[in-house]
Amino acid sequence: MNTIDTMSVNAIRVLSADAIQKAKSGHPGLPLGSAPAAYELWMNHMNHNPADPQWANRDRFILSGGHGSMLLYSLLHLFGYGDLSKEDLMNFRQLGSKTAGHPEYGHTVGVEATTGPLGAGMGMAVGMAAAEAHLAAIFNKENYPVVDHYTYVLGGDGCMMEGISSEAFSLAGTLGLSKLIVLYDSNCISIEGNTDIAFTENVQERMAAFGFQTLDVADGNNLDEIGKAIEEAKADTTRPSFITIHTQIGYGCPAKQGKASAHGEPLGEENIEAMKDFLGWPSKEPFYVPQEVYDHYAKAAEEKAEVEAAWNVMFAAYCQEYPEMETLWNQYYGDMDELAKALMEDDSFWANSEKAEATRNLSGKVINKLKDRMPNLIGGSADLAPSNKTNMSDAGDFSKADYAGRNMHFGVRELAMTAIGNGMMLHGGLRTYVSTFFVFSDYTKPMARLSALMKLPLTFVFTHDSIGVGEDGPTHEPIEQLAMFRAMPNFHVFRPCDATETAAAWYSAVTSKTTPTALVLSRQNLAPMPGSCKDALKGGYVIDDCEGTPDLILIASGSEVELSVKAKAILAAEGKKVRVVSMPCMDLFEEQSAEYKESVLPKEVRKRVAVEALSDFGWGKYVGLDGACVTMTGFGASGPAAQLFEHFGFTAEHVADVARSL
Asked: Do residues 215 and 229 touch, judged by C-beta distance below 8 A?
């Protein structure tokens, strides 16, 4: 390692240690141990342009071990990304700072994904690699590799322990995603001590079994050895690659290196001074970096800008030779405004069904209407496409043999599926949906939370939405899941009652720019509802009204809307004035004006009944102290759906009885 390389690696270590010490919190172990691998990758192998962080054909880098965020912030600062200044590093982990405790997508320039939950970055990296493979299959022409880049992900022992990594890498190997390169920071230390207490398998053999090329770097400080392994990884065009890099956690700090205490606490002022002595750093001043190091990084940034410039020349020639591909590219990478306008004006898109149909079936029909309007629509299910109705006809299957296919087969891997969906959305150019039974949405939730946090409009298709699942019993009957998703910030949950509301759910999902959407769909047939309309886009609306001010309001979603309309008929025959409100999406309803919400649910009408074959949690704000709920209080049972609805009180007569009791 020459002098400037040594100083450039140590600049990452010093900035990381100083920032963590100033913040009095953070994780110095990973940045100190992995600085050489990260430097070698970013300096000598990765195509990226600090002057244009959104360059479409850049290599992607995800720090899956997000706790080591100062490694990433130091790299971004040294390479000159955006306006990430030394002062920003000094404000690490402070309120309002650009340098949050864990990397946040959209918050800090150059951060490709929000990471922190260990293993999440591994799954999202697989998604990015899948997106690259798909887009390359669509757009590349002879002599014009306009989509040709790698996805690199760095994580440690904790990331490899999490089950999501095995789920995602199993699929990556099956798909032969050769542009995926995993850097495994192997230091045999986790928070509780040596990994031997809980993690003793041969990780290399596990990754080889998944179908990865496996490489091993014995000395994590040897840049030449690291660089050689990265080039070997890139040379394999049939398999993803996994590089184990043996490092020492907290390297450079004599009192801490190799110890669990280096993981998640500041090194201490005296230890940082000792570290700077050990590294031969020219100054004890906090955050000091020699100008020659900044110049070295700046020169590299200029050279990397030339790589994008050459790509821009190629892309311009490509567009000139293939103008139809330029049009398609703009369709993939453009906004959704034109689509939104076209769909809104298309009466056939909003037409209700002529017969009773399950909303999962109706959703499948909408997907196949959208597939031709949205060539960049891609997605699939966790081995449930025939039940979820998520298959796009004549769109091909995404596979090692055909990356152009648009139907994804995730296998029984709900957690990885959602992370992969996030990664595909983060990559850019694609609109992705993922799917499973609603009760198994529990397996998706950690990554769905990241969708919401990153403001990614990923679409979730959750079917078999209630006790209507029937004979499969309580293990398959979602009860509390709807309330759990409704509780999540920046997440829209749609439970439609018929074809028109299902169209509204999909319209809202595919035109959303910053909010993920879940469609919660029935297994059983639901009758088309007179009165359902585009007002479903407001989240809640009057679907069946009375004359004048109502005595009572029934509020329902999904299959219980029809039930509420029938209960209204019973009560109306007794002379009561009843309004039925369909509430397919509480989240959107809450985004409406106070005036609109008052027009639907006037405060003067205090007699209200919520009807939903799931938990009552969350309905209190609509029914108030004087209202009531016809909802589930237990886990359901096994039996024919019709019998279950009657058994648990979801009948028009019972709803009318509850209303009378008010």
From this structure: yes
Residue 594 and residue 219: Cα distance in Å, rounded?
63
Residue 248: name the closest of 190, 305, 188, 288 by CA: 188
Q: Is the dihedral of CA 252, 255, 260, 266 positive or negative?
A: negative
Cβ-based neighbours of 424, under 8 Å, separated by 6 or more: 127, 128, 130, 131, 378, 430, 432
- Tell me the C-alpha to C-alpha distance, in Å, between residue 335 and each of 332, 478, 506, 643: 8, 35, 16, 47
pTM of the full predicted structure?
0.98
d(CA 495, CA 558): 5
Give the span between the Cα atoms of 629 and 357, in whole angstroms.
26
CB atoms near residue 596 (< 10 Å):
16
CA-CA-CA-CA torsion for 536, 538, 543, 548, nearest 10 degrees? -170
Q: Annotated catalytic, 414? A: yes
End-to-end C-alpha distance for the chain, whole angstroms: 80
The residues, any chain, with a CB within 8 Å of residue 152's CB and separated by 6 or more, are 41, 46, 59, 60, 61, 62, 125, 181, 182, 183
C-alpha span between 596 and 263 (Å, rounded): 52
3-state secondary structure of 354: coil
pLDDT, mean of each 10-residue run, the chain (662 residues) = 93 98 98 98 98 98 98 98 96 98 98 98 99 98 98 98 98 98 97 95 98 98 98 98 98 96 96 98 98 98 98 98 98 94 96 96 98 97 98 98 98 98 98 98 98 98 96 96 98 98 98 98 97 98 97 98 98 97 98 98 98 97 97 96 96 98 96
Q: For residues 100-129, b (16+ Cβ closer than 10 Å) or e, as one string?
A: bbbbbbeebebbbbbbbbbbbbbbbbbbbb
In this prediction, residue 591 carries a pLDDT of: 98
Distance CA(378)–CA(65), nearest Å, equals 28
b/e burial code for range 46-82 (CB count within 10 A of at least 16 → b): bebbbeeeebbbbbbbbbbbbbbbbbbbbbbbbbbbe
Residue 1 is predicted with a pLDDT of: 67
Q: What is the CA radius of gyration of the chain?
A: 28
* Cβ neighbours, 10 Å, residue 437: 24
Angle of helix 291-321 versus helix 3-23 axis, rounded to 10: 100
- Category of 302 on φ-ψ map: left (φ > 0), alpha (ψ -120 to 50) or beta: alpha
> Which of 414, 477, 501, 560 is flagged as catalytic?
414
Closest alpha carbon to 381 in 444, 435, 461: 435
How do beta strands 357-358 and 525-526 pair? Answer: antiparallel
